Amino acid sequence: MAQGLHLSQRLTQSLVLAPQLQQSLALLQAPTLELKALVEAELQQNPVLEELPPSESDMADRNSDGDAPGDDTSSEAADPTEPPAELNGEAGEAGESGEGGEAPVDDFQAEFEKLVQLDQDWRDHFSQTNTPTRATAEDEEKRQFMFDSLVAATSLAESLLEQVRDASLAAADIPVAEVIIGNIDDYGYLKASVEEVAVIANVPGDKILEVLRVIQTFEPVGVGARDLRECLMLQLEREKQQESLEYEIVRDYMDALGKRRIPEIARGTGATVEEVQESLATIARLEPRPGRAFLTAVDQFVLPEVFVKRSAGDFVVTTNNEHIPHLRISNVYKDLMSQGENSAEVKNYIREKIRAGKFLIKSLHQRQSTIGNIAREIVKRQREFMDKGVAHLRPLTMVQVAEVVGVHETTVSRAVSGKYMETPQGVFEMKYFFTAGLQTDSGANVSNTSVKDMISDIFKVEDSAKPLSDQEVVKMLKDKGIVIARRTVAKYRMELNILPSNLRKVY
Question: Are residues 161 and 288 in the same domain?
Fold first, then answer.
């Protein structure tokens, strides 16, 4: 059968965001430190933008009066997803230029006046936070000296290799020890089998075991173990506890120990239930991860975007502007625009860069204003939380906040993403305050977070000899007017890292 060619057409539509709109969304969504990096990158690309020197920035903060633009609660926040109206108007101005693309000097002067006002507004906006006194050159020198004096932490492998050099090992055994140490993970366990290490080191398995036993005498106690059982036994052996009940339990009843089958362990060892429980308490004090002390602590530092402080019986909300660069349009390029001898090409280039710079400044202003207005609405609706704590967190959706602030709910989502709020109750992610809720029998609304806090309090006061089951917690919550399913209680219990009732029981 003959095959012919067929021509078909397909019409599709796609939404493509303008570059300036993409920039505005990126600025809104970026946390403070990431925002600073974005602004610094823009400073490198746009020659008409400049950052105020520290002295001028501080002077602007001290001399600015009146309310900051971001603190204006009387008007609704403009949606950052919409380009500033001023910029949209300027698009027409570009087309109104005279012959050769040159605009009248009077038009430039009008723009310059707008720029001057914008500069002042932006400085006033930063005055809402108290900028700390900048360090002197001497202070910076001392600070740098402190950083330069810091010594990098020693790793577990480095510590073990150092002990190898001090150990009574033959010269031929040192390379074997190095191979073994190379296969010990960050927690202190030997992850490769003896056979695998023997192949790598090209020595018999007996030699691997001989050197491994030496390494297992090193610090930290328990290092070089091949499993948890051996790790605990090494620690008990170091304490000369080979004849103890603890050693017997770890050696012979590790599976029952993991499942807390205390009566089974008591029958097998011939000890009483009380003696087994005492031994389990001793075992619990042993270190299951010997290399933990050498792990580099990865502390997550957060920089609050919003500060909530109590003042005169009310809560005052301020945005953190300290780490956002103070920007302005360079006066050098403003003067160049006013000079009539410049070519139309030069003027058009400078004009476009000025527009881009103005859009960035206005977008930053808009970002801070939007975050501030959203934060104020959160504080307004979560006042009981600010006063009393987590148990009083109310259900709240982004749609509710968006309707009041006057933006789309996706804008609220971007504005709170990765942002933190410092409150009288501590530092919380702004998304924390948006939570679904339940309605009690009395008609009151309770957030899921509050319910989880209630469950945590219930388990804290339970009888350890008769731990509560998930179904019993369901009944206790029902008595308080909160009706939830047993599987929901189990889910919240797991999120709280609380074991099931059979593993919490103390005999």
Answer: yes
Domain count, the chain: 3
- State both tokens at 265: 């362990």
Residue type, 220: P
pTM: predicted TM-score of the whole model, two decimal places = 0.55
- Shared domain for 309 and 274, answered yes or no, is no
pLDDT tens per residue, range 22-46: 777 888 888 887 888 888 888 888 8
Mean pLDDT of the chain, nearest integer: 78
| pLDDT over threshold 70, residue 269 | yes
- Asked if residue 276 and residue 167 are part of one domain, the reply reads yes
Of 247, 273, 294, the position where a domain reaches its end is: 294
Q: Give the residue numbers spanning the domain of 467.
A: 436-504
- Is pLDDT of 126 > 60? no
What is the per-residue pLDDT for 379?
Answer: 93
CATH number at residue 466: 1.10.10.60
pLDDT of 86 > 80? The answer is no
Contacts with 86 (C-beta within 8 Å, 6 or more apart), sequence order: 114, 358, 362
Strands 426-429 and 314-319, by their bridges, are unpaired
Q: d(Cα 184, Cα 158) in Å, to the nearest integer?
A: 12
> What is each CA distance from 384 to 115, 387, 450, 500, in whole angstroms?
43, 5, 12, 32
Give the position of tokens 């969504």.
Answer: 29
